[in-house]
Every structure is written in structure tokens, then in C-alpha cells.
Amino acid sequence: MQDEKKDIKSFTIAELTEEFLALGEKKFRATQVFEWLHRRGVTDFMQMTNLSAQLRETLESQYRIVTLREVKRLASAQDETVKFLFALPDDKVIESVFMKYRHGNSVCISSQAGCRMGCRFCASTLGGLERNLSASEMLEQIYRIQELTGERVSNVVVMGTGEPMDNYENLVRFLRLISAPEGQNMSIRNITVSTCGIVENMRRFANEGLPVTLALSLHAPNDEARKRLMPVANRYALSEVLAACDYYFEQTGRRISYEYSLVAGENDTEAEADALGRLLKGKNCHVNLIPVNPIKERDYKQSSFKNVLNFRKRLEKYNINVTIRRELGADIGAACGQLRKSHLDSVALHTEET
What we know:
Helix content is 36%, strand content 20%. By secondary structure, the chain is α/β, with parallel strands linked by helices. The two termini are 32 Å apart.
């Protein structure tokens, strides 16, 4: 059965070498197959023309090559952002975003189908968590986008649907695979991983030898306000989360990025800007201000541009490096979870009607 076959694209090259030795094959076959999968992006063992027919048949019988199917594509008329809805092998859907910057092309990928974190302003979490993505399903978002756009991707942000630190093992495996010299050889420093603050895994991650940019979804300067917006704050105190960020910086030397979604009347006052400034003053960090993307299921409204600018100005008085996230793909609902949610709603409506 298909489900019993091994997911070959999730194997590291060391693991793949063991697999080939167990098959009675030479070690170099592992490198050949790894390159076919991760550098050339083949989706069929029969395309691996430097392998014998017999070996290809053996691989076909024992392994599967995970691929994603494009369900929908939305291209922004405002910029060159493209949002993709992909179907996983079990037909669950995820979304990924392709973005063009001066410094290179970036892809925002999902790490889970759905999310169980429950952040109040996020569309990704409205249907709860369906399942974790495998390392191969995370990789496939990048590989398929490169194939579909004909563009090379040099930067990855793991900020799409899902909480990466809630899918820890697959996240780490994905990072080791995407940066492998025999494959995409992407610089680990060109990758950003977002988290809402799962403390024990943040500390564990600091010791993996994978110095990505860590982005903390902060969104409030104190526990009380954070609990209103993010249920995870009921489990981890802000002091614990910030201590884990400090530990990550100590272990990796990588500056922390603090993500702060500005919600009108919730966390965008001058007092909250000052509180955030005092909280982060003296830290080697960067604050990314994000005018929240409103979703119909919540009452939250985007802060006015005047308030956003004033918030930045007050933070800068504390000598904090601050940027306002450039809004890409606003006309196609490029915020996390919006395309997926609209698709699931459409499917549910169609099912009810039939």
C-alpha cells in the first residue's frame, strides 16, 4: 500500500546511505538519489536515469516521493506576490506565499495543516489543528513554487499556517535538508523561523547548531494584554519567553526579531509602546511592526497609519531597531490562513448544498 512506503524525501543523506547499504547498494547511490530529489526536483523514480532499471523498480516498490498538488493560485496586481493553495497527499490543504524583494526571492511556508495556538487575530487557527506537516511536505512548498514560477528561492520564512515549534522534529529535519550541500544548499542564515513562544522547544532549538533568525510573535508588552490576544500566554509567562529569546541569542549570536501585530484599541497605544520600549531596551533585537490583517470572524481592526508611525517613533526613543512590515499581496489576502480558510469555507458550503 502507498501509505506503507517510506517517505524518501524526508531522509537525510546519512539516513539514505544506511537505506542503500541495507539494499546492498553502494554508498554513492544515496548521494545520487538525494541530488535527484533535492537539487533537480524529480517526482518519479523513473526519471533518475543514472540508476539501473532494477534499482528504480526497487525504490518504486518501497518508497514514495511526496508531492503537492496546486489547487489555486492568486497573483497580486499590486506587486509580484503570488499566493498558492496546495493539496497534501491526503488532500488536506495548506498555503504558501512567494514574495519578491530586492535582496532575492522569498517563500513563506506552512509547518502544519491548521494550528492549535488560537491567536485571536489569526485566520490560520480558526479551524484548529488537523495535523503536522512532514519535512518533505515543508520542502515541497519551496520546490513546487520554484518549478511553477521558474524563479530561484534564496530566502525562506517559516511563518505560514501552524506553529513551527509545535512540529519540532519535522522542523529541524526540514532545516537540515534545505541547507544540505548536496541539495538546495540554502544558507541557514537566510531562513527565519517564527514562534509564539513554546519555551522548552525554543531553548532546545538554540542548541541544534541551526542559527536561523528566530522571530517571536510578541504582540503585547505584558502578560495581561498578551493573554487577551494569545492563549499560549496562559502557559508561558512573558518573562520565561524573553529569557528563552536571550538564551537563543547567547547560543547562536543571532539577533531576535520581535513580531508585533498592531490591533486598533488593543495594543497600539503610546503607553504600550513605552512599555514595549522598556521591556526590550538594551537587547540586541529588532522589532517588526505589523498592521494586523482583519478577518471577518473577529472584530479586530488595523491600527491607523498615524498610530503605527507614532508607535515606531516611541520605540526608537529607546534605541530599538524598528521596521514596519511592507504589506505585500494585500489585494489577494496574503495574510496567514486567509486563502486556506476561504477554500475550506467554500468546500463546506458546497457539501451542505449537495
